[in-house]
Amino acid sequence: MLEDIIVLAHGAGGKENEALIKRLFSKLRLKKINGGIGLDAFDDGAIIPIQNNVVTSIDSYTVDPIFFPGGNIGKLAATGSINDVAVMGADPIAALDSIVVEEGFPITDLKKIINSMIEVFEQENIAVVGGDLKVMPKGKLDKILISTVVIGKLVNKTLYLDSKVKPGDKIIVSGTVGDHGAVITALQMGIEAEIGELISDCQPVTKVMRIVREFKGVHAAKDPTRGGLAMSLNEFASKSNVTIEIDEELIPVRSEVKALSEMLGIDPLILACEGRVVLSVDSEIADEVVKALRKNGYKDASIIGYARDDEDWNGLVLLKTVTGGLRILDKPTGEITPRIC
């Protein structure tokens, strides 16, 4: 029936558009930040009175398929922008979204996607203060595209930046790597039977960062999304002008991810994560940070290597292989997995 699918009128800014937005966001408990103006006003902007330092991020999500084990494009859109703000040392407090959907898209699926996004924001106590919805003619867009903006307040005036890695720091990952990338890659290649128990790690990292912020001596934090662990470590090394050496045997990779990677000939270290953090911390606190993470449910948190000042190798990442050799872990190149997030 017509009312069960998206039509061009839903994006025209008139009565149909207003009715659809109210229908989709009816479950959202409207919040305001410090008495400002939010989504309830249905205005073209939001007002957020903030005196603290602000951290913000914007990202667009085109993942294919839009539903996958462990989440969907709505959950991913909320999670991804939350994590970008959290790893810089901020508490996310507000969000805005922009949704472009194809004519003919089932409204039942759109509601599932929106509800997943709302659930993440509400679990994290983040106010959705504004948004936009547009409709493209059938065949002019592949189903749906979501963009999200998340705004956060900087905590303790401490920014965690890629450029702050120091020689002597230990490198920590908060959990297994490559889970999200493995799932999406398998689905895109039509080998769902090989996924088994593997699901995306799509989840906010705010809890990880609140644990980490209790320690002095944390210098850098990053969520290893596109390009995976390999790209994140290379950004640490190049921006901080240090050499990073990691031990392949110490990197937590799920057996399902290893098996899939071997079958496809893909390095799991370049596969995206959507719920993990890579940290560079002072060597004196590294064991305590890992202990705290494991105590709070992150059982696979591990020290995987360290940073050093080496004039011959600064700016590079070195991988000690399981066979005992040493090789350069390059930045990923080419089209690893398109539309991974």
Written account of the structure:
The protein is built from eight helices and 13 strands. It has helices spanning 15-24, 73-86, 107-123, 179-188, 206-212, 228-240, 255-264, 286-295; strands spanning 54-61, 67-68, 71-72, 90-102, 127-136, 144-154, 170-173, 218-222, 243-247, 278-281, 302-308, 317-320, 326-328. The strands form three sheets. It has a seven-stranded mixed beta sheet. The mean pLDDT is 90.
Short description:
This protein is an alpha+beta fold. Helix content is 27%, strand content 23%.
Summary tags:
7-stranded mixed sheet, 4-stranded mixed sheet, 8 helices
Secondary structure elements and pairings:
Blueprint: H1 15-24, E1 54-61, E2 67-68, E3 71-72, H2 73-86, E4 90-102, H3 107-123, E5 127-136, E6 144-154, E7 170-173, H4 179-188, H5 206-212, E8 218-222, H6 228-240, E9 243-247, H7 255-264, E10 278-281, H8 286-295, E11 302-308, E12 317-320, E13 326-328
Parallel strand pairs: 4-5, 9-12
Antiparallel strand pairs: 1-6, 2-3, 4-6, 7-10, 7-11, 8-10, 9-11, 12-13
